[in-house]
Amino acid sequence: MGEVIVKYKVMLDSDSMGRIDDVCQEINGVPDEIGAVQLVEKKPLAFGLMFVEVTAIIQDGEEMNNPLGRFEDEIKSFEGVTEIETLEMGRL
Q1: What is the pTM of this model?
Q2: Number of domains present in the structure of the chain
Q3: Which CATH number is 69's domain given?
């Protein structure tokens, strides 16, 4: 089993911008067995909009059932999250 480090761009709908700090806390609370969150940062996008950049280490291996998809689905389940985009990915 190996590890993959992934950096994501997480977008929120415009109505949820006021709760971006709550979303950051929820992302930090993702269980380590789904993905070990290393860094969560709010970053400016445009016109007062922000996005959340997430760096996580995710276990990968043949015995795992789509670990990247599980992590992404967990993030998408948070209220206000509309999109998640992979920015970078590499093996550790």
Answers
A1: 0.89
A2: 1
A3: 3.30.70.60
